[in-house]
Amino acid sequence: MLDAVRLGPDDDEAEVTAAQVRDVVTRLIAAGHWRDGDPAILVIFDAGYDPMRLACRLADLPVQVLGRLRSDRVLCFPPHRRPGRGRPPRHGRDFKLADEASLPARR
């Protein structure tokens, strides 16, 4: 368990969380509970966190990030290239976890 931290109005939740996890992992390594060649330390987050951002913030540590996504989360597929002029699209079609019609076809 990590110590509870009260976030201020200017605090970034992902930065504070990454700092806490970094501290715990560093202490585990220093205590000899993880060595080179061991499997990655599994860090699990609930739906209130951003697992993709935390994985980026912790990429230099021997951790594997697993996070639960909210059922109403909307992700986007990569954009399709379109011919012509103008700015290319930033996002593809929506991938809604709560809408099976938006899921990719199974192979």
What is the compact description of this entry?
With 107 residues, this protein is α+β, with helices and mostly antiparallel strands. It contains two helices and four strands, in the order αβαβββ.
Any overview of this molecule?
The protein has 107 residues and is an alpha+beta fold. 23% of the residues lie in helices and 15% in strands. The chain is built from 2 helices and 4 strands, in the order αβαβββ. The protein has a two-stranded parallel ribbon with strand order 1-2. A two-stranded antiparallel ribbon has the order 3-4. α2 links the parallel β1 (41-45) and β2. The N and C termini lie far apart (41 Å). The model has no long low-confidence stretch (mean pLDDT 88).
Name the helicity range. 10-25%
Distance between the termini: 41 Å
What is the number of E strands? 4
What is the number of helices?
2
What best-fitting shape do the alpha-carbon axes yield?
elongated
Strand percent estimate: 5-15%
Instruction: Briefly note the structural class of the backbone.
Output: alpha+beta
Mean pLDDT: 88
* Order of adjacent strands in the largest pleated sheet: 1-2
List keywords for this structure.
elongated, 2 helices, 107 residues, alpha+beta, single chain, two-stranded antiparallel sheet
